[in-house]
What we know:
By secondary structure, the chain is of the alpha+beta class. The protein has four domains: 2-79, Orthogonal Bundle (Arc Repressor Mutant, subunit A), CATH 1.10.10; 86-130, no CATH class; 141-228, SH3 type barrels (Roll), CATH 2.30.30; 239-319. It has helices spanning 2-20, 26-33, 37-47, 76-79, 86-100, 108-121, 141-153, 220-228, 251-255, 278-287, 298-319, and strands at residues 24-25, 62-66, 69-73, 155-163, 168-182, 185-192, 197-202, 206-215, 239-245, 258-263, 269-275, 292-296. Helix 2 crosses helix 3 and helix 5 (86-100) runs antiparallel to helix 6.
Amino acid sequence: MSGAIDALPRLLALVPWLLSHPETPVADVAKEFGITEQQLRSDLELIWMCGLPGYGPGDLMDVVWHEDRVSLSNADTIAKPLRLTSDEALALVAALRALLGVPGLVETAAVEAALAKLEAAAGGAFSGDEVAVAVDAVTDPEVVATVADALSQHRRVHLRYWVPARDEATERDVDPIRMFTSDGIPYFVGWCHLVGDVRTFRLDRALKVTVLADAAEVPAEVRQRAFDMGLFTPDEADRLVTLDLDPSARWVADYHPCEEITERGDGGVVVRLRARDEPWVRRLALGLAGRGRVIDPPALAADVRRAAEEALSAYRIISGSD
């Protein structure tokens, strides 16, 4: 998977470069991008299958070979400079601010440079300093920095981790795979030797992290699965919840790992999945805005209904409607 991550920026740079340098010898293009001719040909085979939605003959980019020279055509759209709307630019600034708020997760200088470029491109419409972002204030920065070090060194970590479903601390060895943030909270995904499977850990629940001398050994197929899966990886100790989803909300079954999916007949589904905690279920159900309902366990379903009624009541007070 790391090869795919490295290839994406190269592919994005390769298209405009070839458009501005037609009929360039393959050897020269490979030298320009620091790759082998074989890798370049693989990249071009991939580019040849990319284009605009529709993906017909007139929608895909064309790779034109003339003996040992290569040119690119029918790629004018991607060659145009990226133009962000104000909302898109603000969203990027907010995301970058959130990353800066978690020490040890990213290279600070690189993020600050990206922020400066966004501000300059915005032409003074806003400043990154004016964008307030509420970040996680609970996670120990040393924990984040330790996991980041383990990732960069490809080393295994020993993790003392609090499991709220059982209200206990567990000891486990984990081979880190990647880190990310969600809602300002840092996470890391790794191969957990305690359960023999991939798990996602909230770093605000990590009581202690120690980098071990052992090298992290993650099979390629496991690493691929870790990048393909969504945010949440269930554990047997997590609570089982049943949701009744309308057709427009069946994306939940596609995005979250489900233990059971039953078709309703009208395009909707009833799913059983494991929830990391009750607040997560409540946020998910409220976000479905009536298109999905918690039906089991009954106490949690009642809690969600009560939260929805309180939110609706508050809206009526603010809007002045009955």
